Amino acid sequence: MPVSLVFTADTHVPKRARELPHALWAAIDSADVVFHAGDWVDVALLDELEQRSRLLVGVVGNNDHGVLRERLPEEAWIELDGVQFVVVHETGQATGREARCAARFSDADVLVFGHSHIPWDTTAPSGLRLVNPGSPTDRRRQPHGTFVTAVADAGRLRDVTFHPVPPRR
């Protein structure tokens, strides 16, 4: 049976924004599984996501400390409807990323990662799909913030959609 997914990362709440955008909360509330690829910054967001998500798969980022480091792993693996996911925060520089990650995560079908705040969706020659949802709260050099929705269905990831989040005024 298809599994609806949300990918987010680099939320930096409450440093970059006081809360997540309403569109992201709406997606989280309707998703079967929510992935967060690190840089939460405050444990309050982890607590809220755990309460509102049917299933949360999260990892710690380089800006996460204290209780976040105690509660979250650096790497998380989960299989959903025949798709093997791995989640990490950092993957290193963009140059050579696909080959480097394909070697490191050879048993995965999809790698969800963060850190750069730059949306990314590529497939390595090995077939590993690499998805960085960007940041919904700190767009850096991007035209807007982003998060991703997708579906795991019968062994494949489909309907991968990057959702723009307009800057707050």
Automatic annotation (TrEMBL):
**Pfam families (UniProt xref):** Metallophos_2
Answer whether the UniProt record assigns the keyword Metal-binding to this protein: yes
- Calcineurin-like phosphoesterase domain sequence ranges: 5-150
Gene3D superfamilies per UniProt: 3.60.21.10
Is Plastid set as a keyword in this record? Answer: no
InterPro entries in alphabetical order: Calcineurin-like_PHP_lpxH, Metallo-depent_PP-like, Phosphodiesterase_MJ0936/Vps29
Q: What's its EC?
A: 3.1.4.-
Q: What cofactor does this chain's UniProt record say it requires?
A: a divalent metal cation
Family statement drawn from the similarity comment of this UniProt entry: Belongs to the metallophosphoesterase superfamily. YfcE family.
For this entry, the protein name equals Phosphoesterase
Task: Give the species.
Answer: Blastococcus carthaginiensis
Print the organism lineage: Bacteria, Bacillati, Actinomycetota, Actinomycetes, Geodermatophilales
